[in-house]
Amino acid sequence: MPGTEMANDRHAELTRSGLNLIQQAISIFDAKLRLAVCNRPYQAMFGLPDELTRTGATFQDTIRYLVHRGEYGPQDDPEAAIRERVDQARTFQPHYMERKRADGRWISVEGAPLSQGGWIAVYTDITQIKRQEELLRARSEELSELVLNHAERLSAANRALAATNAALEEAKRILTESEARTRHVTAMVPAHIAHMDRDYRYTFSNNQISMVFPGARASVIGCRCEAVLGAETFGRIRPHLDRAIAGQPQVFEITHPPSGRRIRIALTPDQNGRGVYILSTDVTAEVQAREALTHAAKRAVAAQMTSGLAHDFGNLLTIILGLQGRLARAGLPPEQAEDVQATLAAARRGVRLLDGISALTGGREHQPQPVELRAMLDDLAAMTRPTLGAGVALDARIGDLPARVMLDPGALQDALLNLILNARDAMRGRGRISVTVRPAGRWLEIAVADTGPGFSDEALARATEPFFTTKGSQGTGLGLSMVYDQIKLSGGTLRLGNAKGGGAQVTIRLPLRAARPHLVLLAEDDDAIRAHIRAMLTAQGHLVIEAGSLAEARGLTDLAGLTMILSDLQLGDGSGAELRGRGLPVVLMTALPPGDPRRSGLDCPVLTKPFGDTELAVAMAETDD
């Protein structure tokens, strides 16, 4: 990139030097009627101040200066004259004209539009030619010899003008190629590069904004930032924009509300004071990796601190529970019996705390399987309602989703149970908890909201940290940390926030993968294995057609309604891989180890025997993606 920038700078300098050698005055204005480039004769011809010859000077300001200087003669309404010329310029039409200036000199003006928008104009002083024409008209009979001489001079001038025009065309070509290269390079960058003026209006974009901010329109030139990104996102960015426009560079991160992506934005003030340059990049993966490393480090510290203590405390708690249980059965007086029960309750809470620490520091495995979400939510509601109390209402709503999706039901149910009980505690026994499940593009979105006081600023920043709690001695600080870990393990995201109407809201997003039922052709030459796998398939809701050989399977592949083939790789009469290419998704099974060369080159899921329900469901779901 540095080499490309240096080359572009050299090309631009060469272009400016070449233009300055041309005797005609030249100016190029872009599609926004802002000066792109001019040469020194342009400034000298019209006596323009330096600020009107710098890149970015507006055509309107230039015309206003010339009108007030009398370039176009006396004007009854100067502002009307300015508007007329600006409106004519916006049409970008080819034109040629000759006019007499206020100082009596004549100039010709030739303009041509550019393919990228805007136009190039060439101004030539033709005063001498005009005087010659007048002289010829006045003394045509006496100056026949002079006419020939002047004709020769005019012919030479035309040749010089033709050479100048050729040089001008070459300069135009170089400028066009340079601009095209710059746009091509910026369009290849996986980020949004833009320029915004002081009114928050985009003046340049590399058309990558929708890649960084999903849902934003692709074409933003001339549009205000608020209209492109939405009021909420603009409200988060505006204070930084104002500081950058005032001359202070800014680098900051925001969460894009519609998509939940984490966006890093760098703002560089425009050195000419015309706004700010913007570089926006999606750093969601980086932030998630950073958070995962932070949590992993904290879990490692927690594991080191507790691994030795947990064993000893577990033994102590076992002894305490045993002794207190013996006392509880001893028929003690009511007061002592109550103390024994309190001691038992405290010891059991200690056991639960150790279980939580073990779950936090120990390894986990993601075990997805086909899940009926509506049934799972009904079970969750039935399980939690008795613990909520009479003053807490629980609503569960589910959107238009596939009948069954691939999820780890145990992990998800544990996570939702944690969130519901946290919401109950926050509302102090009175309020409403809602669980909303809906599709969000390629994600399954689950929102748990309550009508409590909401998250504090500290809780929003630290709630997923192990051992952080706002419940004092009543909390372990493990609940949300365990939820975070479970969701990350499932390939999802967790976002904490406060609802607009009040109360906390936790939003979970998990990959949405449908687990639709299939009519499966099962090809397996071992009767016992075939019966076992048939039972696994039917338990998952699939219908099964069986084949005991490759030849039998070939004859069944054209059955109406068949949607999948599950075959052993090594059948008695050939390879099950031969069943590929028949228009149906194929999953293969084999007892060969993963590194065996006979498994290489297979473009379909391969299950290693023996396998369980989870592995089978995941492999079949891969063919639905």
Automatic annotation (TrEMBL):
Q: Which InterPro entries match?
A: CheY-like_superfamily, HATPase_C_sf, HATPase_dom, His_kinase_dom, HisK_dim/P_dom, HisK_dim/P_sf, PAS-like_dom_sf, PAS_4
Which segments of the protein form a coiled coil according to its record?
Answer: 151-181
Could you list this entry's UniProt keywords, alphabetically sorted.
Coiled coil, Kinase, Phosphoprotein, Transferase
Which GO terms label this protein's molecular function in UniProt?
phosphorelay sensor kinase activity
PROSITE patterns, alphabetized: HIS_KIN, RESPONSE_REGULATORY
The first-level EC class reads transferase
- Every Histidine kinase domain range: 308-514
The UniProt entry, under Pfam families, shows: HATPase_c, PAS_4, PAS_7
- Which CDD domains does the entry link to? HisKA, REC
What is catalyzed by this enzyme? ATP + protein L-histidine = ADP + protein N-phospho-L-histidine
Report the EC code(s) recorded for this entry: 2.7.13.3
| Start and end residues of each Response regulatory domain | 519-624
Q: Which Gene3D superfamilies match?
A: 3.40.50.2300, Histidine kinase-like ATPase, C-terminal domain, PAS domain
PTM 4-aspartylphosphate: list the residues: D568
Which PANTHER family does the entry link to? SENSOR HISTIDINE KINASE, TWO-COMPONENT SENSOR PPRA
Name by which UniProt lists this protein: histidine kinase
Upper lineage ranks?
A: Bacteria, Pseudomonadati, Pseudomonadota, Alphaproteobacteria, Rhodobacterales
